[in-house]
Amino acid sequence: MAIPGNLLSATTEMVDPNTSGWAARLNCALSLASGGRNGDGCLKLTSAAAGEMQARTFSSVPVEAGSLYWTFADASSSAQPERIGIRWLDAAGAELSVTWSLTTATASASWHRVSVAGVAPSSAARAQVLLSSTVAGAGVVHYWENVYLGLPIRYPGNLLSFNAEAGGEVDASAWAAESNATVSRIAPVSSWSASFYNAGGEQVAVTATAAGDASGECVERPPVTPGVEYVAFAYLGPATTGSATWVELRFYDETDTVLEAHRGPLAPPGTGMYRQLTSGIAPAGAVAASLAVGITGAGAGETVRTEGAFVGAVGAVPNPAIRTGNLLTWADWDFEEGVGSWAVASGPATIARSSPWGAEHVFDYYALTVSSATASGSVLRSGIYPGVTAGDNWRAETWFKVSAGGWQIAIAVRWYDDTDTYLSSSTAITFDAPTPGWWLLVDDAVAPAGATQGQVEVTLTATSGSSVMQLDRPALWQTLPREEVAAFDEQAMVQLILRELSVGHLMTVWRVTPDGGRTLVRGPEGLYDGYSIPADSLVIEDYEAPLGVPVYYVIETVAVDDSAHSHKITDTVTLTAGDPNYAWLTDPARPGVGLQVAVKTGPEWQQAIEQTVYRVRGRATPVVLADVRQSREGSLVCWTRTDQERDALRFLLSTGNVLLWRCAPGMGEPDVYVAVGEVQYPRIVTYAREEWREWTLPLTEVDMPTGGQVGSATWTVFDVVLEYDSGYDVLDRYETVFDLAIDRRS
């Protein structure tokens, strides 16, 4: 699988099907070995003598001076540890310097991650990856694969810098000792999935100076908004399974005083790396947030390792467990910190967070454990949540699993007004809880008059003693149509909203025209054809729907294991064609910069053909050998009426991308994808201040492109502030404001 954003070629990255992307640099020979994880091939370095051996990428890749780059690779050797480096070169190919990672703490034959990040020096124009290890003699081997060089790969929506997020890939400056601790940057043997690109080989270590509580904190203070819910997480590596390690989300006021802290303790199943989450709503007066990690009751010299730190608003978190529109807070539906505001309203049941990490869950790593020592009924209730609208239909749901004994289960909604006065409850239906595995229980109810708040109530009856049940991801959310379509005529775009999707299923989306023709719809990652669904709701913007033609959409989903299928059809929608003297030019890769132009004359199409005529003596008709007839070619003549339209059309044409030309029905021109040749746009009269321009656009019909739409929903102003020291740095990197908006770097 190709690593997104990799500047290296696929052959260099995967070492498949050969080693042509690599060259020996020092004291070694290269060969192709098997047993890799990113493809079968891997790079085998065999030492010629004792000492350091090095390999480098055969080619160098262009880099931007002053920008931060990251390299990582997976390595394997039972004989010696290793390091990785970025070799910076000037425009002439001369070496300027090398940014080296720390050397891995120990040797390991298991595949493990080695990485480092560094800023390209001022004279750097190109870069190479260096692989290095120091061996005891000749014939020692070291294996490498899954190599990346490029811009840092980030968690979407993270308010922390890459160095803070990645556990010190540059240095340890983003972290500081807080109490009874020292902070250092280390490189233990870090084993990650080959396709997990948000983790490297270097980590931050918080080590207790003496016996007692110890902690370290991230020194960064990203801004927050009071009343907004935030989530934080970090990977923690405890010294022992008995280590009481934790991650804490903190909110600060203007004086850098902690207003609130929300701690998520880790229940470790071992001494590996485990992602621990916590969350909280920014209180009044909060202006910033950060996180800390630590150990409660540490022994002297005890260490907790951390990397993968994240702080961000809940809506920006890359978590497929999120139910869009859920009124419950993160702590109350994910149970990563504890039981949240859930309580036993009646009955003998007890509740607790499951333990250890990863033992019981349907989403993330923990669940709510309900235990009943006797065969009795109990009632569990969540907190009371605002946001309910009277008269609308709401759905309460929860995942559940019978772990021991037997249970009956029912779910309902309790309604409250804005004074917290109880109004009524929906009618609960009791079921015998099935076994084995996880099941989803739902209840739909209309909020009564006066209702502004809701509460989830789960009634559980143990049918035998010593019964145990797990609950996970309870939710209360307004049920909206599963599919909605709407036409936005000003953008010549149809918006498709899909809800209640199954995360992880594969989805295909078709646009269907009255003649029955089906066309795949485009999204940010390409055409929606076997697209892996990342969340339970999606908004799709179709900028390639025909004008003035009724269309509808077909959504087909299938489980990865082919165990479940669904088929949905939307209502019909029509984009208004408008004045037939106008047409739309749209760039499928940059749909937001499409433009409507006034048409003077349409193309007089021609279709060339390569053919040879053989005139046979004594025969009246010739023998003609011909290739297939080529696509249409012709010139569209159109007008722009203002300087703004002229600049917009110039910008639209600037990339040379394939465009879509759409006309109103009845103009005799079906929608066509075109490549535009050399253009002319003189004034319509020879007057210097004349704004009208007459454009001649030579068009060549081409196939529909398959790439995705350019842009990034996770690229924010705060990301710009984190990455660039001044506005001059931004100007050096982006040619236009639009390039800045979509993070397209020059």
Summarize the entry for a quick read.
With 746 residues, the chain is mainly β.
Question: Can you describe what's shown?
Answer:
The protein has 746 residues and is mostly beta strands. Helices cover 6% and strands 45% of the residues. The chain contains 7 helices and 52 strands. Strands 22, 25, 26, 28, 29, 30 and 32 form a 7-stranded antiparallel β-sheet that branches. Strands 1, 4, 5, 7, 8 and 10 form a 6-stranded antiparallel β-sheet that branches. Strands 44-45-49-52-51-50 form a 6-stranded antiparallel barrel. It is globular. The two termini are 26 Å apart.
Q: Mean pLDDT score, rounded?
A: 93
Computed CA radius of gyration, to the nearest angstrom: 31 Å
Calculate the terminal CA-CA distance, rounded to whole Å.
26 Å
Tell the overall outline.
globular
SSE blueprint and pairings:
Layout: H1 10-14, E1 22-26, E2 28-33, E3 42-47, E4 51-57, E5 61-62, E6 68-77, E7 83-89, E8 95-100, E9 108-119, E10 126-135, E11 141-150, H2 162-165, E12 175-179, E13 181-186, E14 203-208, E15 212-218, E16 229-237, E17 244-252, E18 258-265, E19 274-281, E20 288-298, E21 303-313, H3 330-334, E22 343-346, E23 350-353, E24 368-372, E25 377-381, E26 385-386, E27 393-404, E28 407-416, E29 422-425, E30 431-432, E31 439-446, E32 453-462, E33 467-478, E34 483-488, E35 493-498, E36 506-512, E37 518-520, E38 522-523, E39 526-527, E40 529-532, E41 538-542, E42 552-558, E43 565-569, E44 582-586, E45 595-601, E46 606-607, E47 611-614, E48 623-626, E49 632-640, H4 643-653, E50 659-662, E51 672-676, E52 693-701, H5 717-723, H6 727-733, H7 737-741
Antiparallel strand pairs: 1-4, 2-3, 3-11, 4-10, 5-10, 6-9, 6-11, 7-8, 7-10, 12-15, 13-14, 14-21, 15-20, 16-19, 16-21, 17-18, 17-20, 22-25, 23-24, 24-33, 25-32, 26-32, 27-31, 27-33, 28-29, 28-30, 28-32, 34-35, 35-41, 36-37, 36-40, 36-42, 38-39, 42-43, 44-45, 44-50, 45-49, 46-49, 47-48, 49-52, ...
